[in-house]
What we know:
- By secondary structure, the chain is α/β, with parallel strands linked by helices.
- The protein has helices spanning about 15-30, 75-80, 115-120, 130-140, 145-155, 165-175, and strands spanning about 5-10, 35-40, 50-55, 70-75, 90-95, 110-115.
- The chain has one domain (about 5-115, about 145-160): 3-Layer(aba) Sandwich (Pyruvate-ferredoxin Oxidoreductase, domain 3), CATH 3.40.920.
- The chain is built from 6 helices and 6 strands, in the order E-H-E-E-E-H-E-E-H-H-H-H.
- The chain has a 6-stranded mixed sheet with strand order 2-3-1-4-5-6, with helices on both faces.
- Strand 2 (about 35-40) and strand 3 (about 50-55) form a beta hairpin.
- The relative contact order is 0.17.
Amino acid sequence: MQKYNITVAGFGGQGVLFTGTLLANIGLMLGKEASWLPSYGPEMRSGSCNCGIVISDDKIGSPVVFNPNVLVVFSPPALAKFESRVEKGGLLFYESTLIPTKPARTDVTLIDIPAARLAIDAGLDGFGNAIIVGHVMKKTGICDLATGKRAIEATVSERRAADIDKNIKAMEIGFGY
């Protein structure tokens, strides 16, 4: 397995931190070394936030992700801030419902996914982040759908247990997209 250095970025309230936690938990469920390092301002919603996730077979020397080989962005400012940092040959996933301009990089694989639109169409408004995780799982080959579903069950808090089935349905949509 390759080492995944992942950055997930967007606005608070878009599920950026949950997305990162879910990806880190997937790594742990695969028996890999995994780290998750969030970064956000004091704002609860609409403030800039991001997180770095490292998933590796080897010990992780630092949880800081400077040059991700996988970038997931949910907003135009996140794209502007992190696009140039993606490792040459890396994967750049962008939420094309919310980011109207295609990224400029030609030395990375650009993967657009209209997660917000897909979520609304499926009656899952607010679960676009789980759609994106499903698509990341499929395109990177990081894990199968069964592992992703188990990770959702382990990641969703007890307080949000009613959302487990919606997250799983959203992940299935992304995996099948």
